[in-house]
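In this section we walk through a basic example: taking a raw amino acid sequence and producing a predicted 3D structure, encoded as discrete structure tokens. The instruction is simple. Fold the sequence below.
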Amino acid sequence: MGFPGGPRLEWYDRNPIERAISYTNDAVGPHGFTTRASYTVPAGKKAIVHTGFAQITRNGAPTTADKATIYLTLASGETIRLSLRSATIGATEHAEISPFALAKAGTVISIATSDVSTGGTHCMDALITLTEIDA
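The resulting token sequence is shown next.
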């Protein structure tokens, strides 16, 4: 335990709470940019972003294939984009990241998607894990 005026506690001793935000849908049709899940770091807290995962799989044939994208917005405000442009059923793209980024109170961490194809569907999966701690 820390002492008044003494050294600050390590992050893992500051009331850590594991959190995750996720999005899964097995039949996503064409759509504009849509936020699917978000987390805002509460006042008096910080969050350490541990991992991000995204996967897109074409599972329904389009009339015209175009880009389907998953956006992972992390602690720094940086957005990781994963895109798939294919008419082939079963075509897949995936990404895994470990940013170990620190987010301050008020930071919004989110998962969003878009698909500008004409017709067809995709399976979209995304996950961001983090640990919330006292600031």
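Looking at the output, two observations stand out. Residues 78 and 124 are 20 Å apart (CA to CA). Residues 14-134 form a domain with the Jelly Rolls fold (CATH 2.60.120). In the next section we compare this with other chains.
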